[in-house]
Amino acid sequence: MTGPDEGTSAEERRAELAKSLEVVEDRISRACAAAGRSRGQVRLVAVTKTFPATDAALLADLGLGDLAENRDQEAAPKVEQVAGLRPDAAIRWHMVGRLQRNKARSVVRWADEVQSVDSIRLADALDRAVLADPGRAAPLDVLVQASLDGDPRRGGCPPAELGALADHIAGTGGLRLRGLMAVAPLGADPGPAFAALARAGERLRRDHPAAVELSAGMSGDLELAIAHGSTCVRVGNALLGRRGLASP
Prior knowledge:
The chain starts with 9 loop residues before the first helix and ends in an 8-residue tail after the last helix. The chain is built from nine helices and eight strands. The protein has helices spanning 10-34, 53-61, 72-85, 104-110, 120-132, 162-170, 190-207, 222-227, 237-240; strands at residues 43-47, 66-69, 92-95, 113-117, 140-145, 175-181, 213-215, 232-235.
């Protein structure tokens, strides 16, 4: 699957996405079975970055209720467009990319969950934005992004600081700590990194029992992530293809 092109009809694109979704669902089901886990223990989040709102709407038609973006400037208008296309769809939107503090007010207007909180300063910016937003009735669910490779360019909180950040988030009024997220290191076996994330998740739950989410695994490594306890896989290419629209 290579992604949408201008000559593809909505019916053809829906069929492409349905076929890809079937393949991804089969991979997840097989990985869960191999790990002795039930399929219901792993949530599939479709990463729709660089793809049009029409694709997101079609995924909602196919039953996917969790969609993700990684840039606020693309996500904010897309979420609005999808709401116009599918006003009755129950979609939960996730922010999974690195987030600057000055985008916090915009993000809390469209995101149900931010998976990439990696500093106290960002947590505080999001907390202030939630509490100041009159249109928001519920806390913002957040995951602490753990750094698995120590590369500051990829974001993530150093392992030694995860506990302090989690404690800080738990003490805010506008955020709800849900667990950990991580991205596998580039060019290395993700297995040891996912194992380390699982151990970090176990430590986190000792102090925060409700922080049960472990978001790890993407198109190329979701099976290994599920084997190490991932409760959420973030899949883009395997669902939508590799040729999205240019980001605005």
